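#data-curation
PF: Archiving a pair of folding outputs for the training set. Convention for this channel: one message per protein, sequence first, structure tokens after, nothing in between. First:
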Amino acid sequence: MSGSNQPLTVDLSGLRVAISAGAGGIGRVMADAFAARGAKVFVCDVDAESLADCPHPKMRADMGETAECEGFVEAAAAQLGGLDVLVNNAGIAGPTARVEDVDPAALDATLRIDLASMFHTARAAVPHLRAAGGGSIVNLSSAAGRFGFPLRSPYAAAKWGVVGFTKSLAIELGPDRIRVNAICPGLVAGERIRRVIEAKAQAQGVSFREKEAELLKDVSLRCYVTQHDIANMALFLCSPFGATISGQALAVDGDTQRLG
């Protein structure tokens, strides 16, 4: 059993959407899904190969650098003629290790890219969203923003931080008709989760299959979710269907009960 590979059917014609880390992975699937529904999309990414393959208007930007976060938003607004939606998708897995073995530089990078970048892009985007009469910010958190995640403390700390940032910003921006929500994916099928499981299996001295089975046992639907499932939630939140949804951390995770 697995999630959907089909985009939500909704008309988003003319919606102006900026997506960080949007040239590959979940970001690319979201960019394609928004564009297929009529939205105008602008993406950034740090990966040159993904950028070369991406058909959407784009630029290179490192979300670990404050100036580049802000530059991405300004470039998106200039390209699109304004901004209606910001999707904060950029993130890294961070280290897999016991807390005493985590390199402080790895902690700093995880918090900078997975959390601080969202603050910097939102800070730059708010004037454009306000000028548009309102809009939507979607922040990518994680099931690790709902549960403890042993051996992944920097990542979990960042993703819990994303939820707190989201809820606080929703209250602050609500009077401007700017909705702010977080999506909390579970085990998303693909190469990234494979690397995460391999790292945890190695750290715990078990096989990949044993670790995978252990993780899926704690998912009620016993399945991975797909990148399209995440894109569909983003489409819903940014469409008229999500017009009164704000301040929420929405799990798209097959009903995950814990992370081991």
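PF: Second:
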Amino acid sequence: MDPLLKLLTSNASLAPADMAAMLGISETEVRNRLRELTAEQVILGYRAVLNEEKLGRELVRAVIEVKITPERGGGFDKLAERIAKYAEVRSCHLMSGGYDLLVEVEGSNLREVATFVSEKLSTIQGVLSTATHFVLRAYKEQGVLMKHEGAEDRLPVTP
């Protein structure tokens, strides 16, 4: 992996000057490379990983297994892209195995997520079935361990 991209994936908040020092190149080179990667759509955006529990936000997240019928001439892509455009959808992945798409959604309450599944997702032509699983707690998000009240920082040692 490109060393600059590796730095960004571990900490996207680093300043170009800091990245340049860590990589042993000039700040101008870093800025130019970032511009190139953005223009080539290798870098699509920057996001912070938030601990929703600490913010006190009452979000409901769910992962939904979706079985679909591929469309002639478009396969799974057209349907997956249509599903991915919904505001409630955080991510949408084509999968191998017992279902075709894994869709992660977010809502302000259970009813909002359930309504999305029953009125929007399951009514799309080509969607054969859905199985919804509600996320109860995140322990690791995008490679970052979540800190929970009362949780120990080290693994227990057993004889």
